[in-house]
Amino acid sequence: MARRASRGTRGREPLDLYGDVVGAALARRPSLARDALRAGFDFTAWRVSHLPDKDAPLSSQHAAELFFTRLTGALDHPESTAVTSLFLPTEVFQALGASPVCAEALAGTCAGAHAEVPFVTAAEGAGIPETYCSYHKVLMGMATSGVLPPPRMLASCSVACDANNLTFKTLADLWGVPHFYVDVPYEVTRDSALYVAEQFRGLARAAEECFGHRLDEAELSACVARSQRTLALLDRSVDLRRGRYLAGDLMGHLMGAVNAQLALGTTAEQLVATQLCCDLKAAPASRGLDLVWVHTAPFFLAPLTSHLDRNPDAQVIATDMELCCPGGEAPWFGPDEPFEAMAERIVRNCYNGPAERRVARVRELARRSGADGVVVFSHWGCKHTAGASQIIRAELEEAGFPTLVLDGDGGERQNNMDGQMRTRFEAFLELLRTRREERDDS
User: Fold this and answer.
1) The pTM is what?
2) Which one of 1, 54, 168, 247 has the lowest number of neighbouring Cβ atoms within 10 Å?
């Protein structure tokens, strides 16, 4: 514990008490820690549903309700849960009435509740390396400690996290539940999509066997149709964001990224995207700095949230995790070919393939949203982003978008150096303000 405390500079906070309760319960009996987590998750789901934040845009209120309501199922109803990797299309599970959940949702919520350290410690005690992705460490700690009950099945893909292979294979052995893996080629071609589509048909058969009933392909097509409409709405929102201020926060961007993957295909996520476009059309003009955020949003870090949460002087206007799938292009496949349509989406995902594809997507988001600059958050243990970060920075700056690479951790609070992060981020904001003033004067 002392080793972790030395990584950050923060003192005790009120929510630390909840983390202490979870940690003490875990030391006594895993079921007590599960009850403590369940109570916290269920209360938050009730609060955002019945006592929404009236100062937040309606789209953010709907997104919070969707995120937390679905999250509680992992602890409350494991028999209808599938643990998946973040970028795996999940319409098969939607059509079966199952609920997908991912490491980023579980671990991010634990970190926001200051309850991640006991699970990180449990994972490392079970042999998971300290340098492993903290999101996956929390998930592994929840599983190896017995707090997270076994789901009905596991499903993962090769996009884009290198931790997926080890995590899901280990959990399948630990829990004794089936695991289905989808291999995604780098090439963005129809042949790649057709190759992945056959794997999705295999995933559907495996899910039918696990959940005990047949997949209704008409319902699957309806889910895919909603996915395509939702992606088109999210793509339309990029242009609507230009020059507008929408009172948001980093937590909202994390929820948006998770919902845009795990809830894609639901009526609720289509409603979120529809309301987002309405909120943006009604939003006032932006007078502050607009940033495109690359990778996960560390919504609990005060050096960032103090400048970005509901602050008209600086906002995150778009994130590549929420908008990783282009929705403005005419698709190769429609809802009448649901497996091919899901396959096309993951093949086209900007996180699939070389870093240049991700650069192109971020550059497009920055251009269309009128961003002043870009922040690349190089999350602890994510070799994919760490390896690409300097390529992204160099190419974006060549394109005229100042770019800051921040090293930090979106899943474990104490892996962040607050003072250094605050200094670098504030200096970056000042640079952007100076550039804007010079541009306005010229």
Assistant:
1) 0.93
2) 54
